[in-house]
Amino acid sequence: MKRRGLRPFVLRRLWQVVPVLFGIAALNFLILQLAPGDVVDVLAGEAGAATPEYMAQLRAAFGLDRPLPVQFLHYLGNLATLDLGFSFRLNMPVLGLIMTRLPATLLLMTSALAIAVVAGSLLGVLAATRVGSWADTALSWFVLLTYAVPTFWLGLMAIVLFSAGLGWLPSGGMYTVGAGHGALAMIGDVALHLILPAVTLSTFYMAVYARLVRSSMLELYGADFIRTARAKGAGEWRITLVHAFRNALLPMVTMLAYQSASLLSGAVLVETVFSWPGLGRLAYEAIRTRDLNLLLGILFFSSVVVVLVNLLVDLLYVLIDPRVDPAGRRA
Amino acid sequence: MHRRDLMTGGFALASLPAIAQPTAPVRGGTARIVVEEPPILTSAFITTMNIGMVSSKILEGLVSYDLELKPVPALAESWETSADGLRTTFRLRQNAKWHDGQPFTSADVRFTLLEVWKKLHPFGRAVFANVTEVETPDPHTVTVVLSAPALYLFNYINTYGAQILPRHIYEGTDILKNPANSAPIGTGPFRFKEWTRGSHLILERNPDYWQAGKPYLDGIIFRFIPDAVARSVALEAGEIDVTIGSQIPVTSLRRFSDASKYTINTDDGRFLASIFLAQINVRRPHLGDRRVRQALSHAIDRAALVRLVWQGYGKPATGPIPSSVAQYYHRGNPQGFDPRRAEQLLDEAGLRRGADGKRFRINLVSGSGNSLESNRAGEFIKQSFARIGVDLELIIEDSAAYLRRVYTDGDYDIMTSSLHKLPDPTLGVQRLYWTQNIIRGAPWTNGSGYSNPELDRIMEQAASEGDLARRRALVNRWQEIVQEDAPILDLVELTWTTVSTARFRKERPQGDGMFAGLEDAWLVPAR
Amino acid sequence: MSASAQPGLLWRLSVNRSAAGGAVLLALILALAIIGPLLWPGDPWEMAAPPMLWPGEDMANPLGTDVMGRDLAAGLVSGARVSLMIGLVSTLIAAGIGTLFGALGGFYGGSVDAVLMRVTELFQTVPSFVLAVVLVAVFRPSVATAVLAIGIVSWPATARLVRAQFLLLREREFVLAGETIGMGTPRLILTQILPNALPPVIAMSTLTIAHAIQTEAALSFLGLGDPNVMSWGTIIGGGREQLAEAWYVCGLPGIAVVVTVLAFNLLGEGLNDALNPHLQRR
């Protein structure tokens, strides 16, 4: 296979992304337009009462009275200039709202992923090196079980045990509000609040990685280069870590990219259970209150992130393993 | 002993430190209060409850209400009404200042009444409809001039119903979009400090508050905890001090029953006079027949509903006016629980049981934004109707779809909701029955489509009646008519609970305690 | 893989421990769903017993009661049928859409493939659970919308798998042979390629069922369940506020979900192993 230049590859991938993003905007716009009721109904309902004239006035002010294609074109035009619009219910620009919630979600996601990768690799390596033993069987069962447990349910049970029962960990929130901590104490405080949600969110991914690492390592144990390494007198540990595990990383990175979209889904549930002030909950609120601009903004934003992560992983692939044809992986 | 009792005991032991005995108010400390996150922080033109629960600490009204729902002075020191009921004069506090240092004057009241309440507030439009002029003879006197007597006016001028805004911030601006709506400047005991959306909101003591020596607290932190379990656990763990507005589910209240550790206040929401009700769409087949509606009313055991769904926190409702509104409450309901009578009425209406034992099928919609109690009540009603042969399909939708279905499309048979009846029937009850209030597209109007010219006349007469005794008689007649016609089945008088640590104290009990300024609240120091 | 790999399949499945384990578990759950209503007759919505009885506290309600005094045992067996049904039907939808997209894309390639793959990518880029929530919330929570929504968000993985299979099989001799004897395209796809592409789809579908059951529970947890139908998710959603005082109300249906998901996963894994003989001995 011929390896093509990187730059055209990146450009081509970016170009492919445009219709996908356009499709996402169109799909969500359409679904929410089909929905009965709009943000003005929600606002009037929350206000306690409203005259039809006032509601019509609001709809005109929000541009909801214009024909659908006009609204859609208007929205696309704004997107093209990276303007995500305004949340009429929360009285704030959507981008601003997303940015205030983004750090919390990023912290939760990266911690969860880090836990998943580290614990998953560890379990996977452990199982692979002891394949067939009771430890392997026990680990396999543990992993299967974690895989089967619904995230939100695990979170609820964790609160019952660790917060209500034992009182070891806070039940929710991101930090102790108003504690007036110094920087160091603050970090500790956030870390303490982070444990339950991050571990809860990580379990599913941990199970996936553990299985992935185990199977890809076992597959590689028989491979030529491992036999070569053995023949050269490399120690078992060295073979495990340097050769087998390194090769198991590749599918793991692929999986990570593939799952980046699902993280926001997990965040909706985990953030609800643990009152974590992140994007997932904001998205859920936006759905409930028909805050079209806000929901579209969040979905659009997360889609861009997913697309970028995938692009990055494709590039990483090329860098890790020159045998891979960047254009060929997705063909 | 049941195992669950053992468990709750264990939880409680692990949680809070010992409490000091009742003491005089103590200065200092920050109260951590859980509310549902409000979209903005100003109640002057919107009735969303959680906005009121937060904004009331920052912005004030002319009066507040005691447990009997009688007005007590707040920003108005005193008031008097002329003999003909057409002029009401308020004397205002002389030493009240806005948080930015500007003096509070009668011009602020005049501006807010005419420009905000009368024009923009959903109830204010009705409350102040008769106001023809607001006179401000001096900076601390306001006279409201009316075209006809309006006894109800005194029932809606607290910080939740008629919140006073600073004229110098709002005049000449687009009031609905003023940035101060999210960072208010008020006269209240606490000043707005910061709002981290999705997480918390911080208020700090107003050192220049007009009540000398108050507030006792250094500040208030409002926390937003969306999950009900997490809220209960946080209160038990001492992570928070107070939850306002029934934030602890009724099914968890048992865990907070130890009075030495927790206080459950059930009076804070009296002012709202909320009733959980089922509104019947009288334009639908079968449901236009009064006998059918009466039969549905007879099918529901309201006492069992209170016991099973609300765990006893609430009272069976008898009519459109709840018992907490003592001056107009009228006991008794001829359409109470009587399943045999229900079946008889349905037979009379020609809706006999079919071969499958069923008479007809209808639906019941409720909003998913409501509490789980509302869902459970739907399940209870479904079981109750099944017993008289009426098949009920439950529909739970989010509020946008629900409001659209009920008030715009009219595409429903029965809807349930918890509506505030307020301390005066003209304000909170008339809107549900008045023919003129059948308004397509507008929420919380007369959505049943019920229209009765005789009742319309009585309600309109009651509104402008200046004599309390005559007004009572009119309201009584009103209640008898709607009980008989049954376009709305009033089911449960709701109790709003404020659950707090027993360390949280307040000097003055209020009927509108959900919307109290909390200048008189303090935290007993933990020993 | 080719048709010749089929005869040994059942045998391989029966000796595969995880597949056998999964099948046995699943049989038990199915038996419970079918026989259960005979053992616990009556309406699972009937509010007949004292509320919040602990399991074992009163043998009339062996698994206890919920906050409205409804028997949990009756609820669980009734929920088994509903949850299994939701899992199965939504997976059928997902497998249908996925197979259609993957087959067309893989068979025709070129611009048809490009367009279909863009659509697939779109659905993989949107967070699937968020999309499911949007669909259910917007189109009125019910069993039907839940099934549809879960189906709509679950198909992309199947589409990719089927497409890969089609790309592989498209060039095989028996397909080319069919083409040369003048078989029409639909017939070629339906009779020649699809039967050979299906086995891994079936393996994947068991995993999709597992995921669908979890998703239904999560939707109900957010209050987006069908109020007229008692599923495991409904019980969890209704008991979520009593977690700290009566964890079993959420706990028991949660465990039921875990066991069922586990059974499907085991079966799916076993199927996978049995269908990929070269991975079997790892």
From TrEMBL, chain A:
Cited InterPro entries: BPD_transp_1_N, MetI-like, MetI-like_sf
Cellular component GO terms, alphabetical: plasma membrane
Keywords: Cell membrane, Membrane, Transmembrane, Transmembrane helix, Transport
Localisation per UniProt entry: Cell membrane
GO BP term, pick one: transmembrane transport
Keyword Cell inner membrane (UniProt): no
A Pfam family hit: BPD_transp_1
Tagged with keyword Transport: yes
Bilayer topology: Multi-pass membrane protein
Domain ABC transmembrane type-1: 102-317
Similarity comment: Belongs to the binding-protein-dependent transport system permease family.
This protein's name: ABC transporter permease
Source organism: Rhodovarius crocodyli
Lineage per the UniProt record: Bacteria, Pseudomonadati, Pseudomonadota, Alphaproteobacteria, Acetobacterales
TrEMBL record, chain B:
Keyword Signal tagged: yes
Signal peptide: none
Domain Solute-binding protein family: 70-421
Entry keywords, A to Z: Signal
InterPro entries: Peptide/Ni-bd (IPR030678), SBP_5 (IPR039424), SBP_5_dom (IPR000914)
MF-aspect GO terms: peptide transmembrane transporter activity
A Pfam family hit: SBP_bac_5
Keyword Ribonucleoprotein assigned: no
GO cellular component: ATP-binding cassette (ABC) transporter complex; outer membrane-bounded periplasmic space
Subcellular location: Periplasm
GO biological process, alphabetically ordered: peptide transport
Major location category of this protein: periplasm
UniProt similarity note: Belongs to the bacterial solute-binding protein 5 family.
Name assigned to this protein: ABC transporter substrate-binding protein
Automatic annotation (TrEMBL), chain C:
GO terms under biological process: peptide transport; protein transport; transmembrane transport
UniProt key word Thylakoid: no
Subcellular location: Cell membrane
Gene3D superfamilies xrefs: MetI-like
GO CC term, one of those recorded: plasma membrane
Pfam family of the protein (one): OppC_N
Protein name (Swiss-Prot/TrEMBL): ABC transporter permease
